[in-house]
């Protein structure tokens, strides 16, 4: 009897960058297409084996919903993938550049093409959509519109590519794999909030610095409770199995009002080659 | 002869939260209404005496465009205002709740009302606009639509308030005043990027901690050049005239690849009462 295939929840519909990233690590799986990033977290919480979500882009920065969900859901990060992003402006076959008055896409994709759009379509109305592929799917129902997204999706939805590589600069997006099960590897992600006292962050970072643990990412985000309160998202080089990492986290715990360990996983080689 | 009035550039049209914030500190001035946050920075660069822009909200976090413009433009922060935000759902008089199928507003305002919108208008189409007031101004041309924004703007545009205080939680927005001239006060804002070496942030923070300089904000943002490279936005307690602050900044300069001093200014008492 054939083994039951794992399911992987991704932002849908078919052809999103998230699915393209997921296919880099998952072979022979069943994709579950979700309408939103939170729906991906919901799916994994309720039994789908894995989920893939974008977490940051080199041009546009962090994906806020993903950061929020990492705080709220009880899930682990078990892998990561970094993808080079080629954004294409696509249309229903036959549509000419001059006819385009509306351009639809995911807000991050629109933002990554600011310069291209203001030079080529200064008067077009920009409309945001939940995903780049969803924007393409809707294109057939809209006259005089164009969508921005991956070439792969244009093929799926029978659209023509008018321009490609229209993002303002070279662009990479980092995706993470979420699951109920922890992974293993030389990279570890944590989130913490510090007690409100002078030098709190400095003393927390000291615990890592003194143990020669390198931080590859440190990003703060407002707690959304009050101005001036922050949550820190930290990626570090090392595994939760390492004694130094264990010791550092134990010491930091005493300085935090909140500490969440998202897990250890394998660093994407593309990322380390940056 | 009457003294020429100062001009203050704000996000327009009339009635935005930015204008409401600006009126808290500027009396008897001429407002210059701009379409976008970048246009406010452009106006001040080309001669308008002051500009007011939102920089962070307690629920939604930082305003990305403002952070980007602070990096790019050669302007100073000379004041700040913190405003409690009361978001209202408004309609053209006579429109009933059941008739609403589209809701338009600034993306941050839409995001701050996620819960209200999913409970009360689960099927409505959300459409983003450059400002809350611009959304209200457009409302008259759209049937079956509602806008989200300040009560003050509803009054200006002759609209009815259907619901008020619809944001997910208590919400404050911090606005900054930008100008070519530096201000004075007990709060100082800087931006820096660190050399890519282990413990770099820890050693930078040490310069402040050792001098008992308290940081009221530390926020990092991807450099938009490559993944893993960050810019740090730091607010500290102290003035550029203080010897300790001067010394700390001199020491940090050697550790940075980029250092921009945005200026000293008076802290809003609302903020410090948080």
Quick summary of this structure?
2 copies of one chain form a homodimer. The first copy, chain A, has 3 domains: 7-85 and 172-179, Periplasmic binding protein-like II (D-Maltodextrin-Binding Protein, domain 2), CATH 3.40.190; 88-163, D-Maltodextrin-Binding Protein, domain 2 (3-Layer(aba) Sandwich); 187-272, Alpha-Beta Plaits (2-Layer Sandwich), CATH 3.30.70.260.
In words, what does this structure look like?
2 copies of one chain form a homodimer. Chain A is an alpha/beta fold and 274 residues long. Chain A has 3 domains: 7-85 and 172-179, 3-Layer(aba) Sandwich (D-Maltodextrin-Binding Protein, domain 2), CATH 3.40.190; 88-163, D-Maltodextrin-Binding Protein, domain 2 (3-Layer(aba) Sandwich); 187-272, 2-Layer Sandwich (Alpha-Beta Plaits), CATH 3.30.70. Chain A contains 10 helices and 15 strands. In chain A, the strands form 3 sheets. In chain A, strands 1, 2, 3, 4, 5 and 11 form a 6-stranded mixed beta sheet that branches. A 5-stranded mixed beta sheet of chain A has the order 8-7-9-6-10. In chain A, strand 13 (215-222) and strand 14 (230-237) form a beta hairpin. The longest helix of chain A is centred in the last third of the chain and has 11 residues, at 243-253. Chain A is globular. In chain A, 48% of the residues are buried.
Q: SSE layout and pairings?
A:
2 copies of one chain form a homodimer.
Chain A: E1 7-11, H1 17-25, E2 30-34, H2 37-45, E3 50-57, E4 61-62, H3 64-72, E5 76-84, E6 88-91, E7 102-105, H4 107-112, H5 114-120, E8 125-128, H6 132-139, E9 145-149, H7 151-156, E10 160-163, E11 172-179, E12 187-194, H8 200-209, E13 215-222, E14 230-237, H9 243-253, E15 256-265, H10 269-272
Parallel strand pairs in A: 1-2, 1-3, 7-8, 7-9
Antiparallel strand pairs in A: 3-4, 3-11, 5-11, 6-9, 6-10, 12-14, 12-15, 13-14
């Amino acid at each position: 009897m054939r083994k039951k295939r794992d399911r992987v929840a991704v932002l849908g519909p078919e052809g999103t960058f998230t699915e393209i990233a997921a296919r880099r690590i998952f072979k022979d799986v069943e994709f579950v297409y979700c309408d939103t990033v939170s729906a991906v977290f919901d799916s994994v919480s309720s039994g789908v084996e894995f989920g893939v979500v974008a977490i940051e882009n080199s041009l546009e920065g962090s994906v806020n919903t993903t950061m929020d969900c990492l705080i709220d859901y009880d899930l682990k990060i078990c892998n990561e993938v970094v993808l080079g992003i080629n954004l294409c402006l696509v249309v229903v076959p036959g549509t000419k550049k001059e006819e385009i008055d509306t351009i639809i896409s995911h807000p991050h994709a629109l933002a990554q093409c600011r310069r291209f759009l203001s030079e080529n379509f200064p008067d077009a109305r920009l409309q945001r959509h939940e995903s780049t592929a969803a924007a393409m799917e809707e294109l057939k129902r809209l006259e005089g519109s164009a969508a921005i997204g991956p070439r792969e999706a244009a093929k799926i939805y029978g659209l023509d590519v008018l321009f490609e590589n229209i993002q303002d600069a070279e662009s990479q997006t980092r995706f993470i794999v979420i699951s109920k099960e922890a992974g293993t590897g030389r990279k570890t992600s944590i989130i913490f909030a510090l007690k409100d006292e002078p030098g709190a962050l400095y003393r927390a970072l000291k615990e890592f610095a003194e143990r020669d643990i390198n931080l590859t990412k440190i990003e703060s985000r407002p707690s959304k409770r009050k101005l001036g309160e922050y949550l820190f998202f930290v990626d570090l080089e090392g595994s939760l199995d390492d004694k130094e990492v264990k010791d550092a986290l134990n010491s930091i715990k005493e300085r935090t009002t909140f500490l969440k360990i998202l897990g250890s996983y394998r660093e994407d080689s593309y990322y380390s080659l940056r």
